[in-house]
């Protein structure tokens, strides 16, 4: 089922990915990572504080029944989708070192450009959200120690700038495999954040007068509907992982088996952390829970500081992995012009431009929950829910039994249509929220 050759669009796609196999992973001749490395990279890209800190607010926007169902369905569908993508990594006998190359081999040029566009949206949107989350956590730590010192006032934008400078330093590492120790530290921090945040949430929940905690949906009918749409985008964002083939290209043989183990291990961590924090956060604070759960916590102060520090450490690695598709594009241009001798200069230049742009957007519009929803709706839903189902229907190994084959095809078609609708609704809700926030706050608002 290889794509048909010919056409200017395909020629452009072929030229664009001519060196793509080496640009992201740097392991075109074979990966070196184990299934543990795969689990670390997948957990770093998915199970981040920026992803599951908004989940209690998403549940509060949907209510218990719909919220729990959405979370469980999101977990199961994305886990299966990740296994499907991992199984198709070498489906036609050729290793596909990036998501866009895999899509091109299955769907032709339109698949390449489809993934290129949505992966870029997901990467940029995710990194803007991470910048805001990191700045918010750093400011929370600062306020704990200097809240009473007005002369030392530092705004959220200062912390966003500080985090951006550190990420520009990490951006000089050449590929995903070179981030393995960074991501190992991030995975440990994920566990630390989850344990700390859940513990404080339950502690605060028991301290609060339970009679004052309500779980009814807030606002007018229109507000409830749009907040529900927005929440669906948040849940889609929380399971976002548009980098599986890029990660898989760094794994040693047997690649599929190692990737299956890595993905499943990462999802075990995700279930333990996501579900527990989402349920405990909504139970503790009810409808009044904040979009970033750490903003709702009150005591003990030292533990809140720990949770915020864990959050910042963890998302440093996640930010780097989502930079790689953009960096790969620039590296393609550099290698195409045979400027390898000055590659480090060019790398410093394009990473600096990227970091300045991301930091500027995050500082200007620090609306964390809104960017999470937009990124989930526009970026991750097409890549993590829709495309894997379409790919499996086209080239996946279906059962020989006619009845079972038709049932699987019907299920795949249902998933595709359902999540296309969910993505569109979530996008509407997210855009409406951003418009309302821009009307309420000025640019570079210090939240």
UniProtKB/TrEMBL annotation:
It holds the Pfam family Aa_trans. InterPro entries: AA_transpt_TM (IPR013057). GO terms for biological process: amino acid transport. The keyword Phosphoprotein does not apply. Its main location: membrane. Residues 1-22 are annotated as: Disordered. It is found in: Membrane. The chain crosses the membrane at residues 64-89, 152-170, 182-205, 265-285, 297-323, 344-365, 371-393, 414-435. The keyword Isomerase does not apply. It comes from the Eukaryota. Keywords: Amino-acid transport, Membrane, Transmembrane, Transmembrane helix, Transport. GO terms for cellular component: membrane. Residues 1-11 have a biased composition (Polar residues). Residues 32-429 form the Amino acid transporter transmembrane domain. This is Amino acid transporter transmembrane domain-containing protein. It comes from Lolium multiflorum (Italian ryegrass).
């Amino acid at each position: 089922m290889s794509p048909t050759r010919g056409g200017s669009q395909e020629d452009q796609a072929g030229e664009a990915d001519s060196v793509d196999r080496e640009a992201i992973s740097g392991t075109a001749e074979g990966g070196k990572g184990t299934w543990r490395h795969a689990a670390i990279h997948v957990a770093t890209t998915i199970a981040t504080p920026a992803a599951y800190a908004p989940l209690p607010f998403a549940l509060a926007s949907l209510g218990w029944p719909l919220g729990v169902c959405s979370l469980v369905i999101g977990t199961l569908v994305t886990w299966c989708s990740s296994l499907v993508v991992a199984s198709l990594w070498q489906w036609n006998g050729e290793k596909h070192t990036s998501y866009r190359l895999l899509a091109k081999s299955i769907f032709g040029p339109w698949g390449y450009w489809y993934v290129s566009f949505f992966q870029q949206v997901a990467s940029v949107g995710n990194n803007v959200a991470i910048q805001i989350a990191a700045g918010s956590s750093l400011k929370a730590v600062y306020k704990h120690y200097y809240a009473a010192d007005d002369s030392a006032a530092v705004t959220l934008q200062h912390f966003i700038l500080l985090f951006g400078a550190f990420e520009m330093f990490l951006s000089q590492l050449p590929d995903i495999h070179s981030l393995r120790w960074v991501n190992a530290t991030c995975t440990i921090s994920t566990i630390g954040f989850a344990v700390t945040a859940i513990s404080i949430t339950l502690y605060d929940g028991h301290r609060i007068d339970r009679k004052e905690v309500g779980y009814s949906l807030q606002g007018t009918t229109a507000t409830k509907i749009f907040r529900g749409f927005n929440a669906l985008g948040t849940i889609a964002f929380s399971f976002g992982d548009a980098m599986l083939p890029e990660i898989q290209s760094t794994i040693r043989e047997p690649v599929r088996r190692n990737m299956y183990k890595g993905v499943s291990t990462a999802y075990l961590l995700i279930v333990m952390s996501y579900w527990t924090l989402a349920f405990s956060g909504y139970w503790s604070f009810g409808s009044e829970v904040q979009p970033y759960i750490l903003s709702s916590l009150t005591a003990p102060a030292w533990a809140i500081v720990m949770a915020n520090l864990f959050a910042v450490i963890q998302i440093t690695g996640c930010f780097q992995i989502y930079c790689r598709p953009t960096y790969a594009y620039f590296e393609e241009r550099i290698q195409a012009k045979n400027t390898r001798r000055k590659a480090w200069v060019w790398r410093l230049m394009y990473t600096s431009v990227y970091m300045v742009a991301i930091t500027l957007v995050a500082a200007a519009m620090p609306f964390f929950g809104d960017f999470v929803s937009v990124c989930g709706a526009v970026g991750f839903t097409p890549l993590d829910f829709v495309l894997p189902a379409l790919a499996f229907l086209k080239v996946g190994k279906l059962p020989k039994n006619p009845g079972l084959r038709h049932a699987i095809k019907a299920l795949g078609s249902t998933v595709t249509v359902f999540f296309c609708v969910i993505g569109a609704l979530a996008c509407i809700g997210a855009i409406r929220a951003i418009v309302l926030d821009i009307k309420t706050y000025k640019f570079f608002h210090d939240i």
